[in-house]
Design brief:
With 129 residues, this protein is mainly β. It contains 2 helices and 10 strands, in the order E-E-E-H-E-E-E-E-E-E-E-H. Strand 6 and strand 7 form a beta hairpin.
Length: 129
């Protein structure tokens, strides 16, 4: 697979490790967050929040499983085969998608990553755009 440079205002592709789950996401901005909540920290998730029309699962819906915990609002989606968490329906933006930037096919070094204190989620959630 060829790694491309992540470009602003363009579609980027990505997927899980085994390739059974594939998606595309419109890169609206290069500013993303790295959350330290209990699940994002353990998964190494770098969060790209995307509007519903800016995310398309192109392959593998049947191979996705969902994990929920605590408030049972967020839907953490992962590949049943390789276990990679590709995206989430987040509690902060329940009508949007939260894509794991580390699952993109592109080089993500151009992303502007801002830390987010998810361990104190309720006090900080308003800062997520």
């Amino acid at each position: 697979m060829t790694t491309t440079t992540l470009a602003l205002e363009s579609w980027a592709t990505g997927g899980c490790h085994c390739g059974k789950v594939r998606f595309k996401v419109w890169i609206e901005r290069l500013a993303v967050i790295e959350c330290n909540c209990s699940i994002c920290l353990k998964k190494g998730f770098i969060n790209i929040i995307a509007k519903p029309e800016h995310f398309e699962l192109t392959q593998g819906e049947e191979n996705l499983a969902t994990y929920q915990f605590n408030t049972m609002v967020a839907e953490h989606r992962f590949c049943k085969t390789c276990g990679i968490h590709t995206h989430t329906r987040p509690r902060s933006h329940p009508d949007a998608y939260d894509i794991n930037a580390r699952c993109l096919d592109a080089d993500i070094t151009t992303l502007n990553i801002t830390p987010f204190d998810g361990q104190n989620w309720e006090a900080n959630v308003e800062s997520i755009q």
